[in-house]
């Protein structure tokens, strides 16, 4: 959770046996921070660290996910809440973020081939 206008720095260490990445879905940011291997950067190889750094230019609820292999389908994703700089004009007691997904115990590669 961050505030609109913040400078975000997120450090990712890849402990997976394959290349990984983090794509910030819907966020306005420089191309090399977009997290799409082969397009905006080389990906984060096993044992490597990568620093994502960008200024947040919009408020809202978004999500991040891997753009590597089938990692998203295996659970490499989550919510990203960007609070607006100005107070919300609507009063509320609490706020919840709900992420819906489906799940299978089958390998995503097998499901994709179906």
Task: Describe the fold and architecture.
- This protein is mainly beta and 114 residues long.
- It is built from 1 helix and 6 strands; from the N terminus they run E-E-E-E-E-E-H.
- It has a 4-stranded mixed sheet, with no helix packed on it.
- The mean pLDDT is 92.
* Major sheet details: 4 strands, mixed
Q: Which regions have little confidence, pLDDT < 50, spanning 5+ residues?
A: none
Radius of gyration computed on alpha carbons: 16 Å
The topology string of helices and strands comes to EEEEEEH
Fraction in beta strands: 25-35%
- Let me know the average pLDDT: 92
Distance between the termini: 37 Å
Derived structural class: mainly beta
Shape: globular
Helix content: under 10%
Strand order of the largest sheet: 1-6-5-3
| SS field, number of helical segments | 1
Descriptive labels:
single chain; 114 residues; mainly beta; four-stranded mixed β-sheet; two-stranded antiparallel ribbon; 1 helix; 6 strands; 5% helix
